[in-house]
Amino acid sequence: MTYNVGYIVGSLSRDSINRRLALALRRLAPAELDLVEIPIDALPLYNRDHDASYPPSAQEFKDAIASADALLLVTPEYNRSIPGVLKNAIDWASRPRGANALDGKPAAMIGASPGSISTALAQQHLKTILAYSDMPVMGQPEAYIQFTQGLIDAEGTVTVPSTAQFLSDYMTAFLAHVDRHHLPGPGASR
Ligand code: FNR
């Protein structure tokens, strides 16, 4: 079975190291995981006044989430939490009440930072948010990537073999997680 995995990069930066990490994961993923980015850069700020009629960019985003078999969140840490742009995207996907597109989707998270504890604290917050959103989130392995100069190039090639192996193993574990938790639905191609 091949799974349609939507990935979200929690950074809008042109030179994002997390985008490089996402490209690397796309290259290293098992063939059963077809990774496609779900962009968040066109989303307006969430406002519940639009719950009855989402703006087109938000509806498109929510539809992409709904049609994915699983989600991979690749995010920086901002001020020891997740970036506001990522929280905003999650808020759009989760509403209106009773129409949460995240409900039941298997998910995993990973992130890069130059810091020695990387994105550990952001991921702790993200786990709380995704658990509340009723998503089965992969617990292990955890992946906190300390980004050093040149670790991943602009095309997503990982230059350190042990890191490439770790990321490849991480994606293999994610496949097992998706196999275990995915819901039968429109996204999966059999
Ligand atoms: C950061 N950075 C950062 N790093 C970290 O490890 N913990 C943190 O809490 C923060 N906080 C933070 C806040 C803000 C507003 C910025 C702009 C940056 C540094 C961050 O890890 C670094 O800029 C990364 O390059 C961001 O990831 P992208 O955007 O390159 O993917």
Automatic annotation (TrEMBL):
It comes from the Bacteria. InterPro entries: Flavoprotein-like_sf, FMN_Rdtase-like_dom, NAD(P)H-dep_reductase. GO terms for molecular function: FMN binding; oxidoreductase activity. GO terms for cellular component: cytosol. Residues 4-146 form the NADPH-dependent FMN reductase-like domain. Pfam families: FMN_red (PF03358). PANTHER family: CHROMATE REDUCTASE, NAD(P)H-DEPENDENT FMN REDUCTASE LOT6. This is ACP phosphodiesterase.
